[in-house]
Records
---
Amino acid sequence: MFISNAYAASGSSTSDLMSFLPLVVIFVLFFFMIIRPQMKQAKEQRAMIAALQKGDEVVTSGGVVGKVTKVTESFVTVEIAVNTEVIVQKQAIQTALPKGTIKSI
């Protein structure tokens, strides 16, 4: 006989659990290092956009620096120079700057 008889190995459930442990650890690390900070940053961005008001100094996603002159439900009017205003979507506002930043530029 060329092939010997195969006997079922008595495995324990702990070895099955230990094989999934690295996957669980990787998911937990992935959540705390990537997903959670990104959710926090998105929440801060939404709060900043909701708090926009006339007189705030902002930077758009295109890099344009200006002062907010009018805020509507979906759009913001930004004065980028004297008598020059552009209308942008609220989501295009990337950063709110401290007061007086434009004068120092």
Note: The longest strand covers residues 65-71.
---
Amino acid sequence: MAKGYWVAFADLTDPEGYKAYVQENANAFKKYGGRFLVRGGPSEALEGETRSRTVVIEFPTYEAALQCYRSPEYAKAMALRQGKAIMDLVVVQGHEGPQPADS
């Protein structure tokens, strides 16, 4: 079964207030098996537009990634994020097919 991923791009408008969101979202991520692969850090936009912060979270399945986003635990965290950040978020299913090296 393919893994699921959250890919988020965010600009923090209130970094101090955003800390409450980070603390609360840990409950949802733990419950649904979320694991940070990318959590901010240096980045360089080589094509297109992006935001100042990039986050990638891996979940055991695509369904778990969607369930986490739709959960009451994450809804509580999202409420704390309101007015603290502008975010674009996509949930995507991982690829389990052939890779370029396999061709």
Note: The mean pLDDT is 96.
---
Amino acid sequence: MKQLNYQVLRESGYQGYVLEHAPVKVLQFGEGNFLRAFVDYWFDCSNESTGWNGKVAIVQPIAQGLSGIVNEQEGLYTLYLRGSENGETVDRKRVISAVDACYNAYDPSDWEKVKAIAKSPELEYVASNTTEAGITYDPESTPDQVPPHSFPAKLTVLLNERFKAGLGGLVILSCELIDDNGKELQKCCNRHAEDWGLGEEFVKWLNEECLFCSTLVDRIVPGRIRDEAEVRKLNEENGYVDKLLDVGEVFGVWYIEGPRWLEEKLPFKEAGLNVHVVPEVAPYKKRKVRILNGAHTGFVLGAYLAGQDIVRDCMHNETIHSFMNKLLYDEVIPCLPLDKQDCMDFAAAVTDRFNNPFVDHLLMSISLNSTSKWKARNMPSFLEYIEKYGKLPQALTMSLAAYIAFYSTGMLRRENDALVCVRPKGNEYRVQDVDWALDFFWDHRNADDAALVHDVLSNLQMWDQDLTAIPGLEETVLKDLTKIRTEGAEAAYASVL
């Protein structure tokens, strides 16, 4: 079979939407699976629904990447969005044609082409996902490097080229997984402008004409299909070989922090897509952390001790699923400063996401670093519930007991990077966390549960406060832990329903 390109796609008989030629309106840093299943997907849908008529030029931000394959396929790739919606299995295929080309910034001729795109009157947006380490200030980056080392330095050079060409500013959409990603990127660009002496007029243009948007992205993108037999089957069905085949979950939402006019400028609202311009991203990040991530950390440790191995199976266990729902609907959502119906809709979508028939999400993967995860994801809801209602939240308190049980059940040995325990099912499992947390539980291997609970709750390094000061907590956690030890985690979960 031939490799995918426009001619091969026509020969394959593909009947979906395709846009072969359009001006470049987006300059994107990053060619990985996530951006192609998320940002490029939204723009592709906008082309079809609204006639936005724009293409994405991708910049490969590091020396090694996919630019060669992207250009071989003329920017085309097949995206599968898979999962569960309203309890129904979904498997959607779409050939994405929004990408124009990919440029290797470390090739001098390609870097010149990227500069030319930056000076194009048609260009409107910059999008990026250069990993959490991408938005950092690098004093070793200079404007004469081909290209400058860091992403913020590259962007500063390109924005300066546009400024010198007398063109208007751009909207920058940062997708990196750090707080205030847009604001942090803007700070880095300002530091480079100052260090390089680019002048007050450019700095004024940078901060007044350009709009640096912090954004919150939410879509699980496994990316690769690891089963080679399935890949061959899909290629045969499609009638072409696709070396960029991408897979994401059906659910996706993008929150963009910006002024009202931006929602009208972006094509997403008109296209009816799940992309929203909001005054602040922070409340939506809180919703995601408290509900999606908080649900994971809240139920998986006890679920693993109860004999479960993957998230999807937990959604088919009535007790565990009901425990998760109690935790979310009775204890987390009532304490969130957001529209309650919106939060409940998000929580309902979480159940669909956890029930994804295409993703075997291992509980042990979620269990990594559960000490810091419980503190960040669950403890704020736990404390706010107590403050609001003057009593302990039953499910969140039980999840804290399950955390202690997971880290201390059948402890066998301390290894370099793990604490090896044995669950009631009989198999060994590896608790992985920071060294001091693992050392703490190993040092308590001979302590009785009363002493263990007291020392966990009073550990300032774990929680930044002494949780034994909360009335009734120590006694309740000990009671819950005893129930997990004697009756099993599933029965313990059932006891709070």
Note: The CA atoms of residues 163 and 180 lie 25 Å apart.
---
Amino acid sequence: MKGKAIAGLVLGIVGIVFAILGYWFAVLSLPISIVGLILAILGGKELKAANEPSGIATAGLVLGIIAVVISAISFFTCGLCTICVASTANQFENELEQALNQLGNM
């Protein structure tokens, strides 16, 4: 009866840990967190229908929401950072090439 709620809780925890680890883990974290949210919601409904405590499902729901938010933020900010670093590296390469050409012309 508590299986879905426990799975939602575990996936919420895993989603938060993956979201904190960086860009590629955030890519994995987003679907894991969404599945955790769905399982926590379904588990909570089943537990409420059976008049059992639904604290585990509520915890899974909260952790799933937090994991989705953190993974989305991590995904977009790490993506922007990657673009900025690539742009800066490209600009540095162009300036270095120009400096070397000027030294070669001396």
Note: The chain has three helices and no strands.
